[in-house]
Amino acid sequence: MNKPIATALATIGLAQFLKIPYKKITDGNWDWGLFFETGGMPSSHSAGVSSLATYIALQRGVKTVDFALATVFGLLVMYDAQGIRRQSGELTIKVNQLEEQIERFRGEEDHHYHDKKTKRLREQLGHQPIEVVGGALLGMLSGYISYKLFEV
């Protein structure tokens, strides 16, 4: 069994699960569907790649090609999560509001049809920078604990 991959996958699952109690603490709502959603605190993308890079650093050392690859890959994933994917999410919010704005521009009365739509585009695609940092810290901790459990 590849322990670094198992560590990264388990960390991704843990991060996805932690989004549920975090949402309860911040908003007061239990939302079990968050386990299958992208975005939110902590970033499971950041947690997964950080745990992998941490495990590799501890197992192989920071001067290895393995660590270099994991680190560069991880930085690209984290940049994408908080940059491009977040911008896509913000654009999606605007698209979802477009119908309401068109009614207003036409001077029509707001019939709230758009409020009742069941199929809206997913708006939370990416992460705020703090969510990426939270995921990275969780990943480093998880990678360290996993390494100590498996390798000692």
UniProtKB/TrEMBL annotation:
<dbReference type="Pfam" id="PF02681">
    <property type="entry name" value="DUF212"/>
</dbReference>
<keyword id="KW-0175">Coiled coil</keyword>
<protein>
    <submittedName>
        <fullName>Divergent PAP2 family protein</fullName>
    </submittedName>
</protein>
<dbReference type="InterPro" id="IPR003832">
    <property type="entry name" value="DUF212"/>
</dbReference>
<feature type="coiled-coil region">
    <location>
        <begin position="81"/>
        <end position="108"/>
    </location>
</feature>
